[in-house]
Q: What sequence folds into this?
């Protein structure tokens, strides 16, 4: 028989939205469990460079929030874990099965010294650097990971035993197995976030084939201090780029790839990256190919104007095709929307501003009883009066699990989710 | 704690692709480190010398930089390519 643990609220997903909702509820005295499927909490934000429109350092904002969440006496976090079979028995009584995957490292004992990494002979692509460099089969996920402890990627492990030999804390444990825990909670907050559009679904952009075509997330990593390379460089040949193109709406507002909606953040994060690139590479030209610039938020239009003043070029153009020339440079064929003429332009690197899609498997955690909208985001039943309410009483949604949005809106949405959750916990359901 | 690796070895087999990938990475690692023994070089110079695609050299070289085997030096006169050298 697996053990049972009881909490007031189950928060699924430990990104900025999940953390914000959990902290609000924990501060009110509720016992909160965060279940995060990744090795670290922090979501996408922990991997970003700076954030629009203030250009504050993303890690500097996320890290204190992550530590506050991890240290809060009312919050328990299970990383590298998933929940399934969420079953509503009655109001205030949800049961679920939590599966904790083995790290093969004793979490409490690991000091994050990385001596195991030094000894490990296996190198595979580092998913936290979006495949631009390698990592070892045993690895601390990234420098500001929380928890900052190692994990073994057992699928790629050669079972050489070197890590176990060198670990000074004696915390490598290959006997670990998947652990199952029964969970009983009074309410649930879904904060499972988003996934990025896979640009190989638009073969004419050449992503994966032409190495100097990268995604915006890869460029985001190139712009952080813990970047994969020593500077912003072309993945093809390590050259310092000096003429970079951005392709907006890559996989958004595009019926042909099944995603007709706007991703809301790509215009602004591209403008942000363009400004950061001009700082990192003062000699570089940056051109943004766009359909419409959506700079609707507070301070966004000024941020857009600022990028023009800095010398970023904006072309209203629809990219038809990207081709590689012999030195790894790229030829972009586009329709100039103003003139209707098809033109060509040469660049030495292209960044695809990939869209935001709904994450998979959210409804199946609830045995498909949770309703999704037509784009597979969590359906908001009463978007004007109770924006966090799902089709199930006691189950609320926070952040990008309900649709594309930026960080400030994710935090506001998490605020709404925690307020509605505490209303429910205080008996709000019975009063309705 | 005793050696737990021996316990998992009785339950799991290492796949051929893991073995091949390990061999391939370590072969290229040796080639790059050897190429840099004589003098510092750029990615295209290393790629030409060891006859491997540029992107393969970039990926491996940057991984070696991450793990402290090599470090970046100056950029060339055209401000295009960095020179990389063995880390002493
Ligand atoms: C390239 C890029 C740049 C950006 N730049 C900016 C910017 O400058 N400014 C700005 O305001 N916004 C920016 N954004 C948007 C920002 O990333 C999002 O607004 C923010 O990350 C949303 O947070 P979230 O917690 O809702 O989702 P996420 O960050 O996606 O977090 C969700 C978490 O849930 C976990 N999870 C998912 N499924 C499960 C499951 N089944 N069980 C358990 N855990 C699960 C995930 O592992 C993850 O940790 C950018 C986005 C991109 C792609
Ligand atoms: S597993 Fe051991 S060697 Fe590896 S980081 Fe943790 S304490 Fe260090
Ligand atoms: S046992 Fe696996 S994780 Fe540990 S050093 Fe060997 S290959 Fe790396």
A:
């Amino acid at each position: 028989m697996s053990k049972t643990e009881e909490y007031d609220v189950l928060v699924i997903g430990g990104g900025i939205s999940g953390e914000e909702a959990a902290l609000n509820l924990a501060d009110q005295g509720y016992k909160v469990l965060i279940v995060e499927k990744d090795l670290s909490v922090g979501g996408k934000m922990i991997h970003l460079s700076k954030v629009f429109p203030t250009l504050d350092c993303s890690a500097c904002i996320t890290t204190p929030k992550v530590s506050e969440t991890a240290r809060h006496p009312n919050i328990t976090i299970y990383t590298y874990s998933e929940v399934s079979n969420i079953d509503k028995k009655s109001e205030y009584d949800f049961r679920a099965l939590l599966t904790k995957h083995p790290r093969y490292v004793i979490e409490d004992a690991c000091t994050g010294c990385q001596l195991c990494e030094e000894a490990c002979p296996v190198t595979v692509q580092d998913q936290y650097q979006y495949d631009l460099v390698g990592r070892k089969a045993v690895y601390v996920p990234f420098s500001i990971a929380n928890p900052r402890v190692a994990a073994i990627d057992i699928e790629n492990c050669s079972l050489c035993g070197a890590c176990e030999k060198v670990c000074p804390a004696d915390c490598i444990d290959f006997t670990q197995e998947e652990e199952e825990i029964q969970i009983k909670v009074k309410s649930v907050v879904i904060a499972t976030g988003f996934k990025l559009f896979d640009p190989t679904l638009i073969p004419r952009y050449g992503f994966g084939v032409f190495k100097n075509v990268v995604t915006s997330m890869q460029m985001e990593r190139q712009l952080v201090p813990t970047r994969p390379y020593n500077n912003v460089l072309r993945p093809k040949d390590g050259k310092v780029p000096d003429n970079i193109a951005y392709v907006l709406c890559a996989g958004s507002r595009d019926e042909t790839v099944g995603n007709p909606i706007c991703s809301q953040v790509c215009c602004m994060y591209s403008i942000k990256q363009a400004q950061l690139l001009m700082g990192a590479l003062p000699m570089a030209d940056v051109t943004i190919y766009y359909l419409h610039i959506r700079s609707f938020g507070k301070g966004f239009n000024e941020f857009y104007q600022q990028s023009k003043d800095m010398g970023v070029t904006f072309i209203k153009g629809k990219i038809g095709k990207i081709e590689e020339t012999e030195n790894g440079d790229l030829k972009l064929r586009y329709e100039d929307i103003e003139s209707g003429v098809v033109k060509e332009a040469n660049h030495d690197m292209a960044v695809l501003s990939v869209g935001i899609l709904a994450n998979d498997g959210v409804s199946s955690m609830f045995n498909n009883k949770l309703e999704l909208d037509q784009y597979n985001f969590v359906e908001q039943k009463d978007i004007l009066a109770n924006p966090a309410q799902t089709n199930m009483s006691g189950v609320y949604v926070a952040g990008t699990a309900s649709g594309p949005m930026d960080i400030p809106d994710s935090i506001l949405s998490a605020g709404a989710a925690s307020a509605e959750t505490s209303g429910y916990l205080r008996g709000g359901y019975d009063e309705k | 704690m005793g050696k737990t690796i021996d316990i998992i070895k009785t339950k799991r087999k290492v796949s051929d692709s893991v073995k091949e990938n390990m061999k391939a990475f370590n072969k290229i690692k040796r080639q790059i480190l050897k190429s840099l023994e004589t003098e510092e070089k750029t990615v295209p110079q290393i790629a030409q010398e060891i006859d491997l695609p540029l992107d393969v050299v970039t990926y491996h070289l940057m991984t070696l930089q991450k793990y402290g085997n090599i470090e970046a030096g100056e950029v060339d006169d055209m401000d295009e390519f960095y020179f990389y050298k063995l880390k002493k």
